[in-house]
Amino acid sequence: MARKRPRDIQQLFGRQRLARFTDFTEQYQLWQQQLQHCFDALQLSPMLAHCKVVSIRAHTLVLEVSSAALASRLKLQQHGIITYFQSGSTLPITELEVRVRPGTHASAQTALQAVQKTDIIETKPEAPKENEAVRKLREQAELCEEPLRSQLLALADKYEL
Q1: Contact yes or no for 91/145 (Cβ under 8 A)
Q2: Mean pLDDT for the stretch of residues 103-111
Q3: CA distances from 155 to 134, 147, 150 (A)
Q4: Largest Cα–Cα distance of the chain, in whole Å?
Q5: pTM recorded for the entire structure
């Protein structure tokens, strides 16, 4: 069996396959940057660590996410994502496909937390002051008829300190 001679680096870089691979990696990096800018514009940046662009083919942007919760969240933002990619891409994007691959990115639990952080703004409502609650109970008692009125007044007396 004849052995092939080792190839030099210049020969490998000149080959068409390697050139196509480097073109694809450059295109992939551009897609990822565009996805990052898109998520920043749509205020979805906490989910970026759990999402990546797989490809753009046949007018379809294919994204891969680590959980179904993220997939549904992205589907809700589908119009904004498509619009953003249409403006910055040479290919006309008309559809978004989201694939769920649980093991490929950060854990599903952190992905779910990322979705929850973007959905919920944590604000704790202040508890009403006791004097205000007692005052409201007394006001409501004045509007009600006798059996309920006496019960509301008794409750107000109980909480009045």
Answers
A1: no
A2: 54
A3: 8, 13, 9
A4: 108
A5: 0.54
